[in-house]
Amino acid sequence: GAVVSQHPSWVICKSGTSVKIECRSLDFQATTMFWYRQFPKQSLMLMATSNEGSKATYEQGVEKDKFLINHASLTLSTLTVTSAHPEDSSFYICSGGGRSEQFFGPGTRLTVL
Amino acid sequence: AQSVTQPDIHITVSEGASLELRCNYSYGATPYLFWYVQSPGQGLQLLLKYFSGDTLVQGIKGFEAEFKRSQSSFNLRKPSVHWSDAAEYFCAVGAGTASKLTFGTGTRLQVTL
Fold first, then answer.
1. pLDDT at residue number A82
2. Which residue in A55, B50, B79, B83 has the most C-beta neighbors within 10 A?
């Protein structure tokens, strides 16, 4: 199947700083990508839909000013956690693909101290 | 809105034994159903999917699942489990698409030798 990469795979930051996570589709173009959040021992929760060349669509309850999404090219979407706090610590996963299958990145573990 | 229930949080089976992981979904129309496996440090890997047609779906690694509309279920089965199958398994539903998936809470499979 197609490959999606994420960078970094893990990051530790201080409270109040911003962190950028990259999601790349390596062998296909993705006009739409998705960002999920997974808390320990819990399921994946969809945060937002990233649309190439336009604004992201956020799920209910997700702060768009806190989780900035940019999808500037057909192979790259970025998620920036702004002014991160300990409660933002989580596992962030992106996906890309089409209507019949999504391919998931390996995830980024964010720890905010 | 669609939802997914995985009743079993944790299952332990002996290597060589059969396995069935339960998944119940809620969706008004014909759902797109998926089973993913997540191993530590790795991204979600698609095991199998159902859109329409034959209700018994074959997937990778010897897994299969059966769609039962009357029971709103999509249980995952494997006749003989291998130690390498130990992982977290997620059932997911898409509303007429593989995009924007709703995931169940996952079932952690432990395999004893």
1. 97
2. B50
Tens place of pLDDT per residue across chain B (113 aa): 889 999 999 999 999 999 999 999 998 788 899 999 998 777 899 999 999 889 999 999 999 999 999 999 999 999 999 999 999 999 999 887 777 899 999 999 999 99
To the nearest whole Å, the CA of A67 is away from the closest chain B CA by 18
Query: Quick one: closest CA in B to A35, which residue?
Result: B100
Which residue, among B29, B36, B6, has the nearest Cα to B105 in the 3D structure? B6
What are the chain B neighbours of A23 within 8 Å (beta carbons)? none
Residues of B in contact with A98 (CB under 8 A): 98-99
Residue of chain B whose Cα is closest to the Cα of A6: B43
In chain B, what residues touch A49 (CB-CB under 8 Å)? 99-100
| Gap between the terminal Cα atoms of chain B | 41
User: B49: which chain A residues are within 8 Å (Cβ-Cβ)?
Assistant: 100-101
Q: What is the dihedral of CA A15, A43, B32, A54, to 10 degrees?
A: 0
The residue among B87, B42, B23 whose CA lies nearest residue B61 is B87
Kindly report whether the peptide bond that precedes residue A8 is cis, defined as omega within 30 degrees of 0. Answer: yes
Distance CA A91, CA B110 (A): 22
CB A108 within 8 A of CB A6: yes
Q: Is A93 on the interface with B (CB under 8 A)?
A: yes
Closest B-chain CA to A40 = B105
